[in-house]
Design goal:
This protein is of the alpha/beta class. It has eight helices and 30 strands. Helix 2 links the parallel strand 4 and strand 5. Residues 2-233 form the Nucleotidyl transferase domain.
Length: 332
């Protein structure tokens, strides 16, 4: 079996942050989102392929430098050009004859994959990971499965009136026959996402569902869900060269990267990620992600994301996303 991590999307719901950063490479504690996925797959010994795009090739090459992965680069640089998930997966998998484990590159889950892989090895038929989101309104955001025993008898992408709360969570084990059927699917005029492929597939093959009920799953599709996942995965870490004056306070857990300077009664945390070389003076930051080279002075930040090289003074930010290189201030 080979493993394919699908990381070629442009994450438009997280713009402007993801205009310059691939969502799988966003920080999640001291690691990135895709680090957590890679570490779940690595113990199985599968060959790991990461499918991404030309726009973020350099970033993924840097990430992959010390990892045992193969990068496949889709020749696109913007949302309008992308192949779509099924076509991209078909292009990758058409080059080999193995079974394939497919995982979305923005997938965050606390459970291990051992039982899922074991069940696939027993049945050798397409197996789809499911998670009970427990709320019918929430279920409208996802692909929703109906089970008869273990078999999926219906799979509807973002239904207006969900018939269950079992959501597909972007983890698929496909046997060789099903992998080859990706080509049949993409040759037709069909919606190009994996959920719709599953809907098409269940009319042609037995498709099984595997419900994870022993952990948590996060769909990092918007800023709220990203910040929510950050709170869960944040373990306390402050780099040795961080400068914190005696008037400032750190409330655990936080991650503070190298070269940060914190001064003048600033309060950092809880649940704050501070990127490299930031300068923070007389500011309070909690439940937020601050990227590299940001300057904050007399600013309160809560449940917000501030992109790199911003300078913000004399403001209160709540539930905000600030794009890179912004300079914002309010008169004192």
């Amino acid at each position: 079996m080979k493993a394919v991590i699908m990381a070629g999307g442009y994450a438009t719901r997280l713009w402007p942050i993801t205009k310059t950063k691939a969502k799988p490479l966003l920080p999640l504690g001291k690691k990135t989102i895709i680090d957590h996925i890679y570490e779940k797959i690595k113990p199985f010994g599968f060959d790991i392929i990461v499918s991404t795009n030309l726009r973020f090739r350099d970033d993924f090459e840097q990430w992959a430098d010390d990892k045992d992965v193969e990068l496949v680069i889709e020749n696109t640089t913007k949302e309008e050009e992308k192949l779509g998930a099924v076509r991209a997966l078909h292009e990758v998998t058409s080059t080999f004859d193995d079974e394939v484990l497919v995982i979305a590159g923005d997938n965050i889950f606390s459970f291990g994959l051992d039982d899922f892989i074991t069940r696939y090895e027993e049945i050798k038929k397409p197996l789809i990971a499911l998670y009970d989101v427990g709320d019918y309104d929430l279920a409208r955001r996802y692909g929703i499965a109906i089970l008869n025993g273990e078999k999926i008898v219906s799979f509807e992408e973002k239904p207006e009136k969900p018939k269950s709360t079992l959501a597909g969570i972007g983890i698929y084990a496909l046997d060789r026959e099903t992998k080859d059927m990706l080509g049949d699917y993409v040759r037709g005029e069909r919606k190009d996402n994996l959920g719709d492929f599953i809907s098409w597939l269940i009319d042609r093959r037995e498709v099984y569902g595997f419900v994870f009920d022993n952990g948590n799953w996060y769909d990092v599709g918007n800023p709220d869900s990203y910040l929510g996942a950050m709170k869960v995965y944040l373990t306390h870490s402050v780099s040795e060269d961080v400068e914190i004056d005696r008037t400032s306070k750190i409330i655990e857990p936080v991650v503070i990267e190298e070269g940060v300077k914190i001064r003048r009664r600033s309060i950092i945390g809880p649940y704050a990620y501070i990127g490299r070389n930031c300068e923070i003076e007389a500011s309070d930051i909690s439940d937020s992600v601050i990227f590299d080279d940001v300057i904050l002075r007399k600013t309160k930040v809560w449940r917000s994301i501030i992109d790199e090289k911003c300078e913000i003074r004399n403001l209160e930010l709540s539930g905000s996303i600030i794009g890179g290189h912004a300079k914002i201030q309010r008169g004192e």
